């Protein structure tokens, strides 16, 4: 495999819960991200899936250096991002960019498309001299499949899919190496989703980009990702290649998640294994002891409440899985 | 196939159509009169649902699927929305021409609705128990205590743990999935014969979505209710629907039994939609896309509204609007080349 470009080690982010008006006391911690490690290789797409509240968006913010982690390290090309001096940090930020979920709120309605896509050059003027900016922005619009002549239009004059393209053009402006995509297609209609995903695919090949692709839609992630990590309550519970996760999942949560995804094929009604989880995801302020999934798991035994299962390769799992009772089970293709 | 529309003896007789269906939307037209012009949101939609079956209405945003439901329920905002033509018959009686009081009786008891966003559909300043019990007090003349008792039974029915204790909770104290259950409980309170579920799981996570869809299917079976499921999710539809109506630009472009539709879509739009899906069980290379954008309803393209995005479009599609033609069985498709698509291998 190619070189590792982004390395995350034991990343932790706890948000304090405060109470009181004048004298604020900390009465607890929301454990949004609680010890996540991952490697991103050059040119690959790492998919992160999980339900709301599992910490995937906080992870994105930590990677972008928009939130300070409580502890842990983010290393970009071997250098610890958090310990850089401000000048180095600015330079480095050029290389990691973000595409956000909601194309309706992530673009300033009072700025023209040219200003939006060109704004990164204001912050990093060394990338493009003033005289060249307009031409560069038009190039970018062309690259993402928008009409370069629309440079003076405002966001409301574009449809959802086109706005997402504007967001992507903005992320590309500084020629980054890594793009963090936080639910980039979930706000779009089905017929538009495919267009944007193909665009992301195309750009990856053209510019040799590495993606961290965060989404809750497992079919979307399967389509685009080379490797996939599954998160639950701030922890990574299973990591592997897309076949590891989709064909040979070993963590019960992954299996339940896959089995819950409706397959657009009515003949699959009988074939599909049905695993129904009870209840909701517990609060990240007070996660269960031991394995965090045990309160909803049908395999849970005493050891699960005492000992936290580590994310590692196990005798019954060829790829890292954080379950004491990890076992392969194909829930998508055959009745289990 | 010739016109085999009248299958049972017409009861109403006036317009010569069958009144055999529990709920029937007939050639409905709705327009929105806005400052920018008239948006033709629904342009001749007809569908029906019978007891015990699930009809899925599938479409992208702006296709008119929710507006049809709102018109059935009589909660269309007027202005800007106006019904310009058509009928909605429930048990043979036209809801659009009946009096206000009579129509109110149908709402809740005849047809009930579950909305997408439970947090904004429930009243935040009253407890959940109060909101459900209110139905029984107002409509059934029950006492406060009896109302609360029935409310607890309903919350129990939709599998909310510790139902009687949770009656005193406010909507914000419930999780997303539980809130959706409260909405379902409320819709079921007066034993409706038809339940309209408008994107009931779109705001929920997949594992919770599966729970809610199971619950809805179970309730429909137990009560032999008719269900109209409005959604954009082709996966959910494949899981639960009996029949499907696909909408595009305010019209039904294809209607078929679920197996027939997924097995052999007979409208280019359905075909392209199914083709553009990333599939969990298949990993393809490039996704097939539908070019262009859904139409602006203020300026619906001439002829077939789908023609600017269609790969099969020919001259006739620009000028002539294709009628919804029957293809055999319960299938119909609004495409000039429907027969061709139907005949293919």
TrEMBL record, chain A:
GO terms for biological process: peptide transport; transmembrane transport. GO terms for molecular function: ATP binding; ATP hydrolysis activity. The keyword Transport applies. The keyword Transport applies. PROSITE patterns: ABC_TRANSPORTER_1, ABC_TRANSPORTER_2. InterPro entries: AAA+_ATPase (IPR003593), ABC_transp_ATP-bind (IPR050319), ABC_transporter-like_ATP-bd (IPR003439), ABC_transporter-like_CS (IPR017871), Oligopep_ABC_C (IPR013563), P-loop_NTPase (IPR027417). It comes from the Bacteria. Keywords: ATP-binding, Nucleotide-binding, Transport. Residues 6-258 form the ABC transporter domain. Pfam families: ABC_tran, oligo_HPY. Belongs to the ABC transporter superfamily. NCBIfam families: oligo_HPY (TIGR01727), PRK11308.1 (NF008453). This is ABC transporter ATP-binding protein. It comes from Catellatospora methionotrophica.
UniProtKB/TrEMBL annotation, chain B:
Its main location: membrane. One of its GO terms (molecular function) is ATP hydrolysis activity. It is a peripheral membrane protein. It is found in: Cell membrane. GO terms for biological process: peptide transport. Keywords: ATP-binding, Cell membrane, Membrane, Nucleotide-binding, Transport. GO terms for cellular component: plasma membrane. Residues 23-274 form the ABC transporter domain. CDD domains: ABC_NikE_OppD_transporters (cd03257). Transmembrane segments: none annotated. Pfam families: ABC_tran (PF00005), oligo_HPY (PF08352). Belongs to the ABC transporter superfamily. This is ABC transporter ATP-binding protein. The lineage of its organism: Bacteria, Bacillati, Actinomycetota, Actinomycetes, Micromonosporales.
